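On clarity, I found the account of how folds are encoded harder to follow than it need be. What matters is that the chain and its backbone geometry are given together, residue for residue. I therefore recommend that a typical entry be quoted early in the introduction. An entry of this sort, consisting of the sequence and the corresponding backbone structure tokens, reads as follows:
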Amino acid sequence: MKGSRKFPFFLLIMTDKDFIKSLVEERLRNSDSFPVDISVSPDNLISVEIDNDKGVSIDECVALSRYIEANLDREKEDFELEVGSSGITSPFKIVRQYVKNLGNEVEMLLKNGTKLTGILKAADDHCATITVEKKIKSDGSKRKTTVEEDRTYAYDEIKYTKYLIRF
């Protein structure tokens, strides 16, 4: 047939993200590390991002990568695998990263465009609270004084939050 394309019989079968997630959770179950993000692209690039309250070692990434590879069959489907740690300046993707950073200075950008800098005070499954400093002029005073104010935002109001590094 003119104009028809022939497809090879060995079309790639996209690796199942849920299966990869279960492998990662199984491997990390007895460790201090936790999964942050798992993605599988249409061309079978498997990307796994993990974090740990004390930091992720390269050895842990290598061990997880080997574990995942040992449980996948390259004879059935071809894939590329990347395992890495969440970067220190990367935006938080899960609640556990918010909890990990309680007491730390963070930068929060709200979806309405407001950018806040302050101390991450609280985080739960629904929202995060940041303590910001603001200057107010009190009655009878010529100078503004700095006061702290807690602001709570639902996660769907937040575009990103990330750890703030100051030198």
Notes: Residues 1-14 have pLDDT under 50 and may be disordered. The two ends are 67 Å apart (CA to CA). The chain has three helices and eight strands.
